[in-house]
Each structure stands twice: as C-alpha cells, then as structure tokens.
Amino acid sequence: MTTVKLLLKTRSAMMMLFVFAIAPLAPAQNNIMLLGDSNTRGVDGPSTDDAGYRNDLAGILVNEGIDFNFIGSMSDGVGFDAHHEGNDGFKADQIANNMGQYLGQNPRIIVLHIGTNDLSNGESAGSTRDDVETILDAINSFDPSIKVVVSSLLPRTDAGDTQTDSFNELLEELFYKKRDEQ
Predict the structure, then answer these.
(1) If DSSP codes are grouped into helix, strand and coil, which group holds residue 164?
(2) Is residue 63 helix, strand or coil?
(3) Are 107 and 101 in contact (CB under 8 A)?
(4) In this predicted model, which residue has the larger pLDDT, 24 or 128?
(5) How many other C-beta atoms are found inside a 10 Å radius of the C-beta of residue 171?
(6) What is the secondary structure of 91-146 as a DSSP string?
(7) I want to staple 147 with a disulfide (CB 3.0 to 4.6 A). Which of 10, 37, 109, 161 is the partner?
(8) Inter-CA distances, 3 with 63, 102, 144, Å
(9) pTM check: above 0.90
(10) Residues 60-78: pLDDT tens digits?
(11) Is the pLDDT of residue 159 over 80?
(12) With left for phi above 0 and alpha for psi between -120 and 50, is residue 48 left, alpha or beta?
C-alpha cells in the first residue's frame, strides 16, 4: 500500500497538514474529493456559509498556489470550487457501499470525515472503525496511489463525546495499522 494516510485531530490541523501533504504534488492539478457526511457538506451545522471547512481549505490551497479541483456530485457554497461528496445523514457503511461511484470520479486525493452519524445512531466505535477500514481498503484496491487524509471526528458537547473519543482512538490505531502495511 503506497497511499499516504494522515490522521488529523482538529479541523485547522487537517487543513494545514493537508496542504503540506499535497504540496509536493504541484504543479499538476489535483482532483480532490471531500468525502463524508453533513460535516463535510457544511450545511445545517456551525457553518453559516453552507460550506463548512471546504471554503477555508480552498482559500488555503489558493494562497499556497496549489492547483486543485474539488470533485463530487454535489455543490454547496459560493465563491470557491464547491463540489463535494458530503452526504447528509450518511454513516460509514453507506459511504463504503458507494465507493465505486465516488472512485469513478477519479480522485487523486480524498479527504475523509465520517462516523458522526454512526455514533449518534447508537453504532459502536468498533463497528464504525471497521466501516472506515472498508472504505480505506476499497480506495487502496481501486488505486493505491490515491492519497487519503482521514480526519478524526470533531469533539462533541453532548453525551456522545465519550463514544467519539473512543472512536478517535480506534481511528488512530487504524491509521498506524494502515501505515505499517505500506
């Protein structure tokens, strides 16, 4: 497995490390798929611009002079390339079941943020981690040269925070497992 996988624990860390991870890929245009749930879409959450982290990431990439193209079947937000695959309400197994559709769009880089809805709907941290591994394995089987940035879940302020912490720990273990398989 030659895929570079990064586990990021905060949104700002995700954006900055993402930029450093793809900078060596310049000057060619990078097809980047932002894949996940409504946190990726950025609608109905803390985002006031229907873009979540996507417009901030686009701004950073532009400022760094990185040629990119966000790809996906959906588009929300204005003033930047707003394509994405942020699916409202999706759980990790639903993303896994649709990987053929996503990979058919030929991403070179995938930013994955998934698991919030799984945990919110009572699924265990372990089963959610297994679904994320299925996603990563599908990407690697399709094309091991695709770069993957895996984000841990954002901290919560409700009763689900403990479950989120457990999932993030399992996700970190998965990161090291996949890294060592390379």
Answers:
(1) helix
(2) helix
(3) no
(4) 128
(5) 22
(6) -HHHHHHTHHHHHTT--SEEEEE--HHHHHTT--HHHHHHHHHHHHHHHHHH-TT-
(7) 109
(8) 26, 17, 5
(9) no
(10) 888 888 888 999 998 887 7
(11) no
(12) alpha
